[in-house]
From TrEMBL:
Gene3D superfamilies: P-loop containing nucleotide triphosphate hydrolases. It comes from Nitrosospira multiformis. This is Chromosome partitioning protein. Residues 1-173 form the AAA domain.
């Protein structure tokens, strides 16, 4: 099971939105996907429970940090997608001892045979939850928006990843920074991308996702932006989002094959 953290030490950059679309894309390619929310529970808004809770003791995000996963399973929310939801107790993880960050790796190892791809959506701060995700992951991808605040945090995130690699997870691979929510009407934002690529090289993805309202609308309806895309904006957004997802999957070594039987 390939484990990917979607992380950035800044909020409002579209981490959750991209995590869900990446899950949809991998699932439609035939991969078994495990989606984990250690942030604030936004992913549960995309996949609400259709029926009243039947009392099933689903595996929740806090259990990954406490190791209490025996007898619990993620909630199946879509064809080939299972979700480990954020719960209230996961907020307490940031106050736990530092060694807690090593437990998610051990917990996820117990689910290894059930899934091909695991995506972890993280909070925008360097605390136990984000560190635990990085320690457990093979790779991290960083959506960012074009602003001075994002640019200032890029070196800090690189330092964080380097620290995790040196102390806990030497095989952690930073796939790069993915420009998201780009304002196509802003000359400054459009012109910033070539400059960033010159400064960071291959760490800046060639792909970029333009800010469009149809993305949030699609998720509110429980599907990816490329599903039921009819208008010009929807089709353009669908193309950008799918290209970005495919670029990440390719860097992870997944084959963009026809759906598995």
């Amino acid at each position: 099971m390939q484990i990917l953290t979607v992380g950035n030490q800044k909020g409002g950059v579209g981490k959750s939105t991209f995590s869900v679309h990446l899950a949809f894309r991998a699932a439609e390619l035939g991969y078994r996907v495990l989606l984990i929310d250690v942030d604030e529970g936004d992913l549960s808004e995309v996949f609400p429970e259709i029926e009243e809770n039947d009392g099933t003791d689903y595996l929740k995000a806090s259990h990954l940090f406490t190791g209490e996963i025996k007898g619990r399973q993620p909630r199946q929310v879509y064809e080939k997608i299972a979700l480990i939801e954020a719960d209230v107790d996961v907020l307490d993880v940031d106050d736990m001892p530092l060694e807690t960050i090593e437990q998610p790796r051990l917990s996820l190892a117990q689910l290894n045979g059930n899934y091909d791809f695991c995506i972890i959506d993280t909070p925008p701060n360097l605390q136990r939850r984000m560190l635990g995700a990085l320690v457990a992951s093979h790779a991290v991808v960083s959506p960012f928006n074009i602003s001075p605040f994002s640019f200032a945090r890029m070196p800090k995130l690189q330092a964080t990843i380097a620290g995790v690699k040196s102390q806990y997870n030497p095989n952690l691979n930073h796939l790069g920074f993915l420009a998201n929510m780009v304002n196509s009407k802003s000359v400054n934002e459009v012109e910033a991308l070539p400059e960033l690529r010159e400064a960071y090289g291959e760490l800046i993805f060639d792909e970029a996702i333009i800010a469009r309202a149809c993305v949030a609308t699609a998720l509110a309806q429980g599907h990816a932006v490329w599903h039921r895309a009819r208008s010009g904006n929807q089709r353009a957004s669908a193309k950008e989002m799918r290209r970005a997802c495919d670029a990440v999957l390719t860097r992870l070594g997944f084959k963009l094959m026809e759906p598995l039987s």
